[in-house]
Amino acid sequence: TALAPDGWYQMGAKAKYRKYNLNELNEETYKDAVFYKELPIDNKDFDERLIVTYSIKYRNYLRKIREKQIMRAKKALQNGRVHAKKIAEKKIQDIDYEYIRQEERFDGFYAISTNLSDEEPSEIANANHQRWQIEQCFRIMKSEFKSRPVYVRTDARIKAHFLTCFLSLVLYKYLAKRLRGSYSCEQICQTLRSMEVRELIGEGYVPNYTRTDL
Which three-class secondary structure state does DSSP give residue 83? Predict the structure, then answer.
């Protein structure tokens, strides 16, 4: 099946036909690797292929998003901000952790159904894998860079606003690559925002923050 740990190939690996078991992966060694497998589909109407990818980085990305969602849900419950239709005199609101555990089974996996018959599975998997990276960029733009809502109205200022956001995204990507994925986007942005300096007349600027490893 798609979630079975055995029978996976590594995208771009020198040993092209070596099979991997996801349960036996060293997460530090393969943290940037993408694995794929092709599954048969019985479809008599037209040609169809199902290609599934798995990535440790994508798994961690989904887990981080879920952790934030759970934290927001807990906070909303504590503050009594969860709204529901009143259908009973007494009601109990809680987080369904069993449902969360069921959802966690799919972390890191991404499937695509295609009728492309001439393309290599690795090429299709590679193109498909880039989708979540695009999604991650949009999340960063909306969350860390506050690209929306937009408070400007003229075309020039709207373009300038999003140009600034895109340039910030490019700079962030360079920083993240230089840091080899050791820090999250939140950690990098928070560190940059805390790097204040003060001006000494005649001497220039001096740091006004405490240095960290980051």
Answer: coil
Q: Burial level of 55, CB count in 10 A (0-12/13-18/19+)? A: buried
Give the total residue count for the chain: 214
User: pTM (2 decimals)?
Assistant: 0.65
Considering Cα of 179, then 180, then 183, then 188, what sign does the dihedral take?
Answer: positive
Tens digits of per-residue pLDDT, 165-181? Answer: 889 999 998 998 899 87
Identity of the amino acid at 90: K
Query: Which strand ranges, in their side-by-side order, compose the sheet holding 19-20?
Result: 19-20, 8-10, 34-39, 49-55, 109-114
Beta bridge partners of 51: 38, 112
Residues 166, 64, 25: CA angle, nearest 5 degrees = 110
pLDDT in tens, 20-68: 999 999 998 998 898 999 887 777 776 778 888 999 988 998 898 899 8
Instruction: With H, G, I as helix, E, B as strand and everything else as coil, classify residue 54.
Output: strand
- List the Cα angle 153/149/192 in 5-degree steps: 110
